[in-house]
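Hi C.,

You asked whether I'd gotten around to modeling the 296-residue construct. I have! Everything is below, sequence then structure, no commentary in between.
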Amino acid sequence: MLNVDAGGGDRLALAVLARYRMATTEQMHLVIAPEVRIEQTRRRLSKLRDEGLIDRVTLPQAGRTRVWFATPYGVDVASEWPELRGRRPPRLIADRTAARLRAGHALTVTETGLAFLQDARRRGDTCRPLDWIPEVHHPLGSGEAVIPDALLYYRTCEDGGSMLRAFVEVDRATMGPERLAAKLTAYARLHDYVPAPPPGRPRPAAGQQLPEEDWRRRYPLFPRLLFVLDGTGPTGIETRIRALRAAASELALSGFLRNVPVLATPLVDLLRGGPSAPVWRPVQDPDRRVPWSQSR
């Protein structure tokens, strides 16, 4: 029998790695147990590794940073838990080589989620470790899908506790500005996508209720869309924001942008000021700076 503590520490650590894909030792410590000494987190991770639930890779170019990830066995174990059930697990990391090659983007996504988590703790808002959900699959039909880098659930302590949701795209400048801007079109398609009726089922007759957009099965409102930009200097950031602004001016996106706030910020500003600070730039008016939570 596995020596996984029923009290939740081991369980939370495994659940976080199964959901986040990868995290450094320090990130794991800040996510799951910032109130204790980091040595306790190190011991916990080592124990889970001895049990075959997680593994690690060392990044020599990053000061020999240890990066942790759930093994296929660990993902199988965690997927049976209620807190993770019902979500398609992120793409599994096959081995240490795969982990090393994918670490850059995955760790930046984790760092972004950690920023929201820490900000909520400071403000008294509610955002728990498993409220950050990477790679949630949203079908578009014909085998296509929109898969955000993360889906965020966040409840504020203001106004009676408003629930906020956001799709988060973390861009490390590995694709051109035009490809980044094309994501706006993909999300607009998701906003309007209505699944076709199953084969053999007749389409609704006149006067019958028409099928709703697919996203309404999951969300009362379409989540905000947040772009977090990294991997380039100030000039590169401005180029990417201008590309998003140009895409936002297209007439075909006007309906989507009337209903859905789309904001962008450099990761460095997000980490320096915190997500609740006015560091976000609306893609339709990038000269403004607004808090992400007050943009709808």
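If it helps when you're writing up: The mean pLDDT is 88.

Thanks,
B.
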